User: Fold Ribosomal RNA small subunit methyltransferase A from Thermodesulfovibrio yellowstonii.
Amino acid sequence: MHKTISKKKPKLGQHFLRNAEILEKIVKVSEINSNDKVVEIGAGMGDLTEILLKNAKEVIAIEIDPVLYKILKERFYGKENLVLINENALKFPYEEIGQFKVVANIPYYITKPIIFKLLKLKNLISMTLTIQKEVAERLAAKPSTKAYSALSIIAQYYTQAEIKFYIPASFFNPPPEVESAVIKMDRRDKSPVEVIDEKLFFKIIKSAFGQRRKMISNSLKSIIDEPKEFLIKIGINPIKRPEELSIEDFAFISNELCKICKK
Ligand code: SAH
Assistant:
């Protein structure tokens, strides 16, 4: 049955995960409990939903595909702690639902936009996501590693991210082209660095990693007038590459730059 659905709508990222042992493991690492409101993005045929319902107080399951939505409605008929929503998860008003956790096997084509959207929500407690291995590794990466990127810093500014385990492609039906990983991201109460101007901080990070092979003095040319002189003055070695700089370094650069701009 899933083969027909996925053939008709390959663009919806439909790769179903129906292995009970793995689904249980995902719910276990998500640490949800009977007080939690859980949002599932892309509920598919509801195998993960079913386990979430047993563990959480309430589940909001969002599924864009009307065919799957109908299957879910029939499967969970009469379940009082389930709210089923037939909508694009990128358009759902998350800020209006109070404190919640996300547990989801994310459709891969919306991985980044949905993570960016969720990261910024103050009412999010945590998210446990099954996503492409490469993206998970970038989200959790530490400085001076290949995977360390703008995404790592943005994610770690808002959350504490940890890869819990990997899932081979063959566990999905149909198998995706990439391996997957389950990552848990706990939203921080307070960011690990103090940043005066968040917009500038993110702009610097994006610009730095936009040209990650260049020295930091070169990759910041579009933002700072004389980047080399500025970096030397504030005590940052201008020949470093962006991946050699920590989140603290980027916060420092952005705050020092702010001081000048405000003068
Ligand atoms: N959770 C299920 C399905 C995962 S596949 C399982 O683990 O088996 C991803 C699911 O997300 C598919 O059912 C797909 O139809 C749905 N989906 C794709 N794009 C979506 C979107 N923008 N909003 C909500 N659901 C979406």
Notes: Residues 247-262 form the longest helix (16 residues).
